[in-house]
Amino acid sequence: MTSVFDDLVGQEHIIEILEGAVVASRTSEESQEMTHAWVFTGPPGSGRSSAAVAFAQALICTNSGCGNCSDCQAAKTSGHPDVEIIRTEGLSIKVEEVRELLTRFAWAPSMGGWRVVVMEDADRLTESAANALLKAIEEPGARTVWLLCAPTLHDVLPTIRSRCRHLQLHTPSLEAVTKVLINRDNIAPGMADFAARVSQGHIGRAKYLATDESVRSNRKLIMQLPMQLGSLAGAFQAAQTLVDIATAEAYSSSDERDEKEIEKLQEAYGKGATGRGMASGGAKAVKELEKEQKSRSTRMVRDSIDGALLDIATFYRDVMMVQSGNTESMINTDMREEIESYASFHPEHSTILKINALMEARSNLGHNAAPLVACEALMCQLARK
């Protein structure tokens, strides 16, 4: 029998807890197994959002999450009247968005069971938005469940996390990710193994790498950057290359989408229907949408750069492994010769400093540092021997 939890790779300990909560939810009382607020944490690719959505499906499904019924299918796409999935595409979740959400979820379930809110990026709540959400969690509506997702528990406001049940997901093993790519996505074994290794257990990125040649090509260019840092000029050029690749990758997936969104909004305000322009308020709505799209694009560029920095970090990680005499656990086996050559010409202590510099650059980007400036500062540090 299929289940909505089948796609949670390497999270058996979480599945057991969630299935027990679904059973307990069939009673009308809150219990130790079933509570009104949960927070799912785990590293990127662990499936924290997938676990929360699967739990939402199971709560509103009459078969406890069969994955095949109309309720399960609708809940997965946020098309169910009692399930809302908040997928943040901007840099933050603002208080106005939370207040609007609270207004929509002030009523009892419309189809019985539960009303479920899945917030995929609770770590992006502004302070005022988090305080607004806190009040709803402190005084939950009738049979309303909040499922919050964040990278770590410390990314959630202390007063919120203290009122939630915490579930910690782990990064799936490389073997488990490889098996999923082969069996579920029909990826060739060699490609599946490569994608699982270089994505470091991130299932979504592994599938992205395995199925898109342009993504693999961009990654190959990025992985060559450490070997191009022989001078200050080379460091600045490498920074520009990294930002250009990340920006092109981000905008390639957003330009067409942005255009369609604006066209649909203009049509909704009557553009082209009567030969006139848009109805009153249309221009303002389009301007607001363009502002949201710009924020979304900014985040996509930053996320793309962050992914590139993680890829570069695996290069220096492999260098460190070679320098310590351990080559069996190498991630980038396709670059073995370059990595071994680099390791022989650079001191061991500098490798650790470079990995630390990469992590600091990621942190700076997370605090809204200018991408090009942050990358230039990083490449100058990486260029030092």
How would you describe the overall organization of this protein?
The protein has 385 residues and is an alpha/beta fold. Helix content is 57%, strand content 6%. The protein has a 5-stranded parallel β-sheet, covered by helices on one side. α8 crosses α9 and α13 runs antiparallel to α15. The longest helix has 42 residues.
Blueprint of the fold:
Blueprint: H1 12-25, E1 37-41, H2 48-60, H3 70-76, E2 83-86, H4 95-104, E3 115-119, H5 127-138, E4 144-150, H6 158-161, E5 165-168, H7 174-183, H8 189-198, H9 203-211, H10 213-223, H11 232-252, H12 255-268, H13 282-323, H14 336-345, H15 348-366, H16 371-382
Parallel strand pairs: 1-4, 1-5, 2-3, 3-4
Helix pairs in contact: 1-2, 2-3, 4-5, 7-8, 8-9, 11-13, 11-16, 12-13, 13-14, 13-15, 15-16
Envelope shape: globular
Terminal CA distance reads: 57 Å
Structural class: alpha/beta
Q: What CATH architecture of the largest domain do you see?
A: 3-Layer(aba) Sandwich
> Within the largest sheet, what's the order of strands?
2-3-4-1-5
Share of residues in strands: 5-15%
Oligomer: single chain
Determine Rg (CA atoms, Å): 23 Å
CATH superfamily of the largest domain: P-loop containing nucleotide triphosphate hydrolases
Total domain count: 3
Mean pLDDT figure: 86
Largest sheet: 5 strands, parallel
- Count of extended strands: 5
The fold-level CATH name of the largest domain is Rossmann fold
In the CATH scheme, the class of the largest domain would be Alpha Beta
Number of helices: 16
